[in-house]
UniProtKB/TrEMBL annotation:
SMART domains: 35EXOc. It comes from Paraglaciecola aquimarina. This is Ribonuclease D. The gene is rnd. PROSITE patterns: HRDC (PS50967). CDD domains: RNaseD_exo. Its EC number is 3.1.13.5. PANTHER family: RIBONUCLEASE D (PTHR47649:SF1). Pfam families: DNA_pol_A_exo1, HRDC. It is an enzyme of class 3 (hydrolase). Keywords: Cytoplasm, Exonuclease, Hydrolase, Nuclease, tRNA processing. GO terms for molecular function: ribonuclease D activity. Residues 210-267 form the HRDC domain. InterPro entries: 3'-5'_exonuclease_dom, HRDC-like_sf, HRDC_dom, HRDC_dom_sf, RNase_D, RNase_D-like, RNaseH-like_sf, RNaseH_sf.
Amino acid sequence: MQYTYITDEHALNQFCLQASRAKVIAVDTEFVRTRTLYPKLGLIQIYDGQQLVLVDPLPINDFSSLTQLLTDPDVVKVLHSCSEDLETFWHAFNVMPSPIFDSQFAASVVGMGTSLGYAKLVETMLQVTVDKGESRTDWIARPLSEDQCNYAANDVLYLYQLYPTLRDKVVEQNKLPWVYAEIEHLAMKKRTNLPLDYVYLTIKNALKLSAKSTLILQKLAAWRTEVARQKDMSLNFVVREENLVEIARVQPQTKHALRAIPRYEPT
C-alpha cells in the first residue's frame, strides 16, 4: 500500500494544489464519536488518482488549502455513505464538500441495492475483499498503526476505482442530477440544527404516548438536546432515550418516585 502520511501544512498545501487539477478525488474520514455529540476528526484520506494521502489533522492548524479543495466546484468528491463525513467536515472546518458523488446512493438509484456497505460494493464491482477489522479503532490515539493506515487508505483506493463504472451506470439511466441533488439536500440538513421543540419526534415511540406525556417528553427532549449541544456530550450520556420516555409516561411527582423509575445506563 503506497500512501503519504501528511502531518504539516506545507505538505498539505502541496498535495491540495496538485489535487485541485484533478477532475475527481476520493475522500473519506475517520473519527471518534463515543461520548461526544459531535464527531472528533481523527484522519482524512484523499486519493486523486496519482497520490494517496492520509492527512493527520491533529498537528495541523491551517486547513485553508484543504477546505478550498473540498469546495472547489470543478473537482468531484467521491464519498461513500457520506452523512457522517459531512457532519465531521462541518464541525471541524465549517465547510461542506461539494459537489459530491455518493457511491452508496448512486448504487441504490441504479438498482444495485439500498444501503450497500462499502465493503460489499467493492466486492460486487471490483471483486476485492476489503478488511474492515479496524473500523472501531481509536482514531484520535497516536501513533496510528500500519494496519490502521492501510485500512484507512483502502477506503479511498477502491472508492476511486469503482467511481467510473458506477458513474457510467448512473449516466446511462439519466440519474446523475439525482445523485448530486440528494447530497446537496443532505448537506443543507446537516448545516441546520433541528429546532429544540421538534427533537422529541426523533425519539422512538414518542407518538405512542398520551397527549400530556407527549408534551412532557417534548420538554425533556429539548432540555437534553440543549445540554448535549452546550457540552458536546452524547445524548445518551446526558440521559438515555428510554429514561426520557419512561419519565414522560410515569410522570413522577416526587424525587422518590423519580428514583424508582428503572435506569438505563449509557452503552
